[in-house]
Amino acid sequence: MANVTKxxxxxxxxxxxxxxxRASLQLSRAGLNVAVLTKVFPTRSHTVAAQGGIGAxxxxxxxxxxxxxxxxxxxxxxxxxxxxxxxxxxREAPKVVYDLEHMGMPFDRNPDxxxxxxxxxxxxxxxxxKPVQRACAAADRTGHAMLHTLYQQNVAARTSFFxxxxxxxxxxxxxxxxxxxxxxxxxxxxxxxxxxxxxxxATGGAGxxxxxxxxAFINTGDGLGMAARAGIPLEDMEFWQFxxxxxxxxxxxxxxxxxxxxxxLLNSNGERFMERYAPTLKDLAPRDFVSRCMDQEIKEGRGxxxxxxxxxxxLDHLGADTIHKxxxxxxxxxxxxxxxxITKEPIPVVPTIHYQMGGIPTNINGQVVIQRxxxxxxxxxxxxxxxxxxxxxxxxxxRLGTNSLLDLLVFGRAAGNHIVESxxxxxxxxxxxxxxxxxxxxxxxxxxxxxxxxxxxxTVANDIRSAMQQHAxxxxxxxxxxxxxxxxxxxxxxxxxxxxxxxxxxxNTARIEALEVENLIEAAQATIVSAAARxxxxxxxxxxxxxxxxxxxxxxxxxxxxxxxKHTLWYSEDHQKGGRLDYKAVKLKPLTxxxxxxxxxxx
Length: 603
Description:
This protein is α/β, with parallel strands linked by helices. It is built from 16 helices and 22 strands.
């Protein structure tokens, strides 16, 4: 086992989803030697599950411009998003969509041949006046079309994919620079060192820290675990988006595109309740807002079903033709997961964990930034992060629908371009590897291999998920979060005691799952500790202790801008005590636009 193979590349990318493959495309086209590591075949990365669209102010269906998109995103973030990054993303949006179109992505079309766009929650024209059609869609399989398009282009550009490899640890040298990663090849069980002048993390989210999740089983927060173990902080991990329309009992996602096409939410009285909460945007208010309203309807006894624990999403009035043309996957999901024909009857839905707003702190070039030398945003040389595992903070406390696929494209491309430029002047030789480059990884694997007693990985993982579901859900209380902090700390001790019954090397999925639990616990602890410390309501973080009367027009719902308009930074060190927390300021100054000052979020 101690015989570790070494390989050298210009760039190693960990993850082959939308952001990883958008970055690798820029790099491969520039002639760099790129290795893309992925736990699953690239087209099975979780981007494939994205349904609704890519937000861009093309203005194909009605008047739109990037200033409106910028305003909506700042407001959607509940003023926790960094306004420089938000401006950059919204200005780049049309360009990255047209890039994809030129690569051959099969967008839906209008009769005049332009890209079809649908309305989405929180996206408006003229600074909140009315909903706007901004989501560029390929039916309700936009992520699927995007991922396949990017994969084909990467194959043409001769990108090297290392399929069914799992990255384990970042390798930092004595200067604190990143010089590569360690990884396991699943087929053989061998550990490898992949040296790189630049390493890019594109590992996706950690949605599997929750019991009810729209996320695939692969979304175990591996990049977050690797960063935390290397002493890099995780930013804003208390903010998790609950998607309003997960299929009740199954958790499978029904795209917001349903409501974009005109679907409506109903309570047990058959009432379209969103009209009460959001008179202007109604069912197309942002996700955190709609999820809270659904939860309130259920809490107040207007839920549907025998246990009154879900609401209904009604689509049949759209007509079977529109449903089969614009929402074919949703129709299939209805049949397969709810035994419902959505062309004839409503489907039961409930808010389900969907997306992490937080992650590894980065700047708009995708460079990882840390607190060092009195600077909150000091660049960590050789390391980048893009996509859901990163936190450039365009989403703040709540992401608008369609901004995730946009985030992948904009920052994947930006990081790719920045790496190409930075490597032009880099030394030809790689930096020297530290002597103990693989020791941490080998020790973790040896502990599992040498174990004779202990717990099964999935037992511990399931206990993490149920604790997070119970103590860090849509609605939170201070007492419940404090209890969750204790529970996760106890579970952290149990993670050390995981055993492996099957010690074989070849395709040992039990070993991979055990190693994934070590990443899950970092993401879970970062989330619960950061959440318990934030004494306010903001975006997806709603704590009943801090809610204020909604009928006071001057007061946001318990949002405390004076004390809490700041980013959380959680460090894994001293994790017996729950880790260490620090904070940094939100960037309120855009690149060129006027800053959007904080105000009450009404829709």
